[in-house]
Amino acid sequence: MRNPRIHTPQPLCANRDITLTDSAANHVGKVLRMRPGDPLILFNGEGHSWQAEITCVSKKQVGVKTLEQLPGDSESPLRIELGQCLSRGERMDYAIQKATELGVTDITLLFSERCEVKLSSERQEKRLQHWQQVAISACEQCGRNRVPTIHAPVSLDTWLNNRNTDLNFVLHHRTEKQLKGFDRPQSVSLLIGPEGGLTTIEIEQAQERGFHPLALGPRVMRTETAPVAAAAVLQYLWGDWN
What we know:
Strand content: 25-35%
Number of helices: 6
Strand order of the largest sheet: 8-7-6-10-9-11
Order of helices and strands: EEHEEEEHEHEHEEHEH
Number of strands: 11
Distance between the termini: 30 Å
Oligomer: single chain
């Protein structure tokens, strides 16, 4: 078995004894059934990872000792910021998980006119914690040492007014515009509509704020598929897939 990668929010340095948080301890001790002396890799989202070794396992706690910082950085040189209109259940989880695997750096959840998801303040906080954990788990699996930030839901208009990326794209199937003729950017914003799509007015609002319309082929993609396809193409053109 390869060394499991475990996220911990604690500061990391060489030769430090750490007690894993409850969720990480449960995963290591009860799910993976690891024992003292077993190796694992720790990261805290700040960009580095550390070789570590389990020192003790009890019913409630798992102790770990960091050994050395590991070389390598799996972050793309292209910064991708995703504005994803809220969708229901597993569709939202899928979009966040795959966007994380594809190197997206920031994900902001958006309310739009056709968005059918309604969240009370209490439920919103619980869902935000859940979605951040989805991103953390994806980083553990894919080898990223930086966890994308999942920003609390805001209105589409608020997000549009706070863009400072080099290039901005709004995906929709009512255009024939493709990814051609653009200079290589260092950062890109992607706007993805909800299950019912963005309205004509919302698309126009995005374009008025400098967003280029973009279609990825002749087929209509689902809301959870569009960010995956778009991020993959961007990584191929301007990121670390070439």
